[in-house]
Design goal:
By secondary structure, this protein is an alpha+beta fold. Helix content is 44%, strand content 11%. It has helices at 31-46, 48-55, 57-61, 63-68, 85-93, 95-106, 146-160; strands at 70-75, 78-83, 113-118. Helix 1 packs antiparallel against helix 2 (48-55).
Length: 162
């Protein structure tokens, strides 16, 4: 028969404090930065390839193609792009190059066909820089002082729009 051991002494344990919550940053952020962490997991569960393609479209397509066409849908190896009619004809001729560029950017051949829908792309094209207007000399006979200066500015503004 074995001797019965008495209750063991446990080392005194202090109760563990809960970890401090992470500090919050209340600085202003863009809406895209707020939505991306919420939307990305939902897209990945539904269609991971389409999520990556739609989220990274400007980087994958390049600035010229991204300004002229926008992805609408990706299913069964077919990528549907929204663009205007004349652009669709041009992009259809460049289809093999576009597909190879996108597949290379995605890392594997997932785009097999391109389909075009005639609709204006929802991605706004980048604005061209404004050209500096040449100063138009004010007409003669304007009064001196602040009224004359205001009339000269108004005249330059009106002539600059023509």
């Amino acid at each position: 028969m074995r001797p019965v051991a008495g209750p063991r002494k446990q080392a005194s344990q202090t109760p563990a404090l809960p970890p401090e919550p992470p500090r919050r940053n209340f600085a202003a952020r863009g809406i895209a930065a707020l939505l991306a962490p919420v939307v990305r997991p939902a897209f990945r569960r539904r269609a991971p390839a389409a999520a990556q393609l739609l989220a990274d479209w400007p980087q994958l397509a390049g600035p010229e193609l991204a300004a002229r066409a926008a992805p609408v849908k990706f299913a069964g190896g077919t990528l549907t792009l929204a663009c205007t009619g004349p652009v669709a004809m041009e992009l259809q001729l460049l289809g093999p190059q576009i597909m190879s560029r996108l597949n290379l950017g995605l890392g594997h051949a997932m785009i097999e066909r391109l389909r075009f829908v005639q609709q204006a792309p929802t991605i706004a094209p980048s604005r061209a820089p404004k050209l500096a207007r040449a100063a138009v000399p004010p007409p003669e006979g304007l009064p001196d002082g602040p009224v004359g200066e205001a009339l000269a500015k108004l005249y330059q503004g009106m002539k600059g729009k023509e």
